[in-house]
């Protein structure tokens, strides 16, 4: 396995700890000579759209990271440029297998992603890992990044790891994640792993952008302790009981049998696919190959029955509606008349002088 030197990307938060050690690997020699501009120059000036697009297509890691940074930017001035880049990259995207991986903190997600990622790279794949961390926007802390994660994987030339930006609401973060998938695919990554913490809304959103959703579980922890709601199991294509090693092996097998029985009663999320229940030891690597075989079986089966494409089309439509909703909402709250009226209307509601229904009607009428 060829290793390359990686360095901290320019978007690394100032207070980032060791967990942020990763991601940007020096561009391969011989690619666009424009990419060898000095780092400070790259920092201060956004490269031209053509340069970024070419860089992404050539998998120049510096320009790939720069493009994602631009897409993640909340500055209105960057939106147009980002959209142009995405438009140009779109024809090159769509060819990867998109996999969502969820589970409560400590379940072994990062250990599993590292093991799966290394296995896939050995098999000749190019793997992108994107993380969606819902805590970052709320607490400014991070559930996913409290330790050194995926150290070996991050050093692989055929791997690219990108944490979600630590700002914005969940919609914002996932909007960027979805677009980042497009960019990574255009750069030639054929497996995109999207990691999320199985404790809230984020996995529902991640589900809407992946082909396969895998839930990492621990045996004997109790459903409550795992924060596992039936809803999360219902959106999963597979449950993998991790840590099937040592003294824990027995417990894992019992849990697997229990859940294998229980999932029969659930309506599977993906048409024609019955939720699978597997065991693995991410630490020793046992069961990792089986996970990949299962995912291959899923893609083969769903491509044959056309549900793979149907689901992607459905996701695209859903995504369009989401973006329309988002844009309309922004326009509404930024409308000068609405902005002016809303202060007084809020006051009236709080004083009990106005009902929410009339208040909403009144504000909406200012907007239309
Ligand atoms: P995450 O928070 O879900 O990403 O979990 P981590 O991957 O960081 O794992 C949490 C802890 O469980 C770490 O101490 C890992 O070494 C350990 N762990 C992960 N996978 C396994 C496994 O398969 N077997 C055992 N025994 N420990 C594991």
Descriptive report:
By secondary structure, the chain is of the alpha/beta class. The protein folds into 2 domains: 93-306, Rossmann fold; 310-367, Helix Hairpins. It contains 15 helices and 9 strands. The strands form 2 sheets. Strands 5-4-6-3-7-8-9 form a 7-stranded parallel sheet, with helices on both faces. Strands 1-2 form a two-stranded antiparallel ribbon. α2 packs across α4 (76-89), α3 (61-72) runs antiparallel to α8 and α14 runs antiparallel to α15. The chain is globular and about 65 Å long.
Percent in strands? 5-15%
CATH homology group of the largest domain? P-loop containing nucleotide triphosphate hydrolases
Distance between the termini: 60 Å
Catalogue the unreliable spans.
1-5, 19-24, 26-42, 136-140
| Overall form | globular
Mean pLDDT: 83
Distinct helical segment count: 15
- What is the share of helical residues? 40-55%
Number of domains: 2
- Distinct ligands: guanosine-5'-diphosphate
Give the spatial strand order of the biggest sheet.
5-4-6-3-7-8-9
Q: Strand pairing plus helix content: what structural class? A: alpha/beta
Order of helices and strands: EEHHHHEHEHHEHEHEHEHEHHHH
Radius of gyration: 22 Å
CATH topology of the largest domain: Rossmann fold
* CATH class term of the largest domain: Alpha Beta
């Amino acid at each position: 396995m060829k290793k390359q030197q990686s360095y901290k990307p320019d978007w690394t938060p100032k207070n980032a700890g060791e967990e942020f050690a990763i991601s940007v690997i020096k561009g391969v020699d011989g690619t666009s000579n424009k990419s060898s501009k000095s780092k400070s120059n790259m920092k201060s000036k956004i490269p031209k759209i053509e340069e970024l697009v070419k860089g992404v297509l050539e998998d120049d890691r510096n320009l790939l990271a720069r493009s994602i940074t631009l897409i993640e930017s909340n500055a209105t001035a960057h939106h147009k440029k980002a959209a142009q880049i995405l438009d140009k990259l779109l024809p090159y995207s769509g060819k990867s297998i998109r996999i969502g991986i969820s589970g409560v903190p400590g379940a072994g997600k990062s250990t599993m992603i590292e093991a799966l990622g290394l296995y896939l790279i050995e098999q000749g794949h190019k793997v992108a890992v994107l993380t969606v961390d819902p805590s970052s926007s709320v607490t400014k802390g991070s559930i996913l990044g409290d330790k050194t994660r995926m150290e070996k994987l991050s050093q692989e030339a055929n791997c690219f790891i990108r944490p979600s930006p630590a700002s914005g609401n969940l919609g914002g973060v996932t909007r960027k994640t979805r677009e980042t998938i497009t960019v990574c695919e255009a750069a030639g990554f054929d497996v995109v792993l999207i990691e999320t913490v199985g404790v809230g809304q984020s996995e529902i959103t991640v589900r809407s952008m992946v082909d396969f959703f895998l839930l990492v579980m621990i045996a004997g922890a109790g459903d409550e302790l795992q924060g596992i709601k039936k809803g999360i199991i219902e959106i999963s294509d597979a449950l993998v009981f991790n840590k099937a090693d040592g003294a824990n092996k027995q417990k894992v097998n019992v849990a697997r049998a229990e859940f294998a029985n229980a999932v029969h009663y659930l309506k599977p999320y993906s048409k024609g696919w019955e939720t699978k229940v597997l065991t693995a030891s991410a630490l020793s690597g046992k069961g990792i190959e089986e996970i990949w075989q299962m995912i291959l079986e899923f893609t083969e089966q769903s491509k044959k029955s056309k549900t793979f494409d149907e689901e992607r089309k459905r996701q695209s439509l859903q995504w369009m509606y989401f973006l329309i909703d988002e844009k309309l909402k922004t326009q509404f709250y930024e409308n000068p008349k609405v902005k002016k009226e809303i202060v007084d209307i809020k006051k009236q509601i709080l004083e009990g002088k106005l009902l929410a229904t009339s208040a909403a009607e009144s504000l909406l009428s200012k907007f239309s």
